[in-house]
Amino acid sequence: MQTGDIDVWLGLDVGKSSHHACALDHDGNTILDTPVDQDEKQLRRTIAKLQRRGTVLVIVDQPNTIGSLPLTVARDMGARTAYLPGGAMRKAAQLLPGGSKTDRRDARVIASTALRMPETLRDCEPDDETM
């Protein structure tokens, strides 16, 4: 996946009722680290806030079922979308400091991996086979 035009990498560890969002800039600085409800309005507010900084790439760990709302909202708002497969996420998590499995850490792993290793990402457009 080409990410040369991306300004913000938004990693979402998706859950049934809420997600954890971690957004990074080009340098890996955290610009957002917060829970986000599984709610269209809150997702729109979060993405719109980040779009003030430029092009946003929204990355989820599950593209179907519970991850479909964030992806649909992101696409509707003109953000790019991708998904980080479970195997790549587990390997990346082993490389980062800290061993606890939390939603917050998982969101950071997703965003950081997307920023530093974009080749691990998969497109998840509606016509893609993963969807």
N-to-C terminal Cα separation, in Å?
17 Å
Number of helices: 4
> What fraction of residues sit in β-strands?
15-25%
- Radius of gyration over C-alpha positions, nearest whole angstrom: 13 Å
Secondary-structure-derived class: alpha/beta
**Domain count:** 1
| CATH topology heading | Nucleotidyltransferase, domain 5
Provide the CATH superfamily.
Ribonuclease H-like superfamily/Ribonuclease H
CATH class: Alpha Beta
Q: Would you list the SSEs in sequence order as H and E?
A: EEEHEHEHHE
Return the CATH architecture. 2-Layer Sandwich
Q: Please give the oligomerization state of what you see.
A: single chain
Determine the fraction of residues in helical runs and give it as a percent range: 25-40%
Which segments are poorly predicted (pLDDT under 50) over 5 or more consecutive residues?
none
Q: What is the typical, i.e. mean, pLDDT?
A: 88
Order of strands, main sheet, comes to 3-2-1-4-5-6
Q: What composes the largest sheet?
A: 6 strands, mixed
GO molecular function, one term: transposase activity
Domain Transposase IS110-like N-terminal: 10-131
InterPro entries: Transp_IS110-like_N (IPR002525), Transpos_IS110 (IPR047650)
Protein name: Transposase
